[in-house]
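Protocol step 4 of 6: structure prediction from sequence.
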Amino acid sequence: MKRHALMWILWPSFLIGAATSATVFAMIDPLDLVLFGTVQIGRQAAYACGFFFFWLMAALSSALSLFMAPPSGPRPADDFED
């Protein structure tokens, strides 16, 4: 993958990850979260895990969009309609 395509994926997903984690943790206190019934994690760990999870989900979405985008460049002559 080209370096500029990687930045097209990572930079917007970083911004979305930051905005999403700020929104989610403004409504949810990480100390109220309990994993697997008994495991409780600290605030810093919840903030970090939440941010990286949201960043990963947004990056996968951006990568899928870039993968599914039509290739840019000139089209072959037989694709043009008269």
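Step 5 (inspection) to follow. The chain is about 60% helix and 5% strand.
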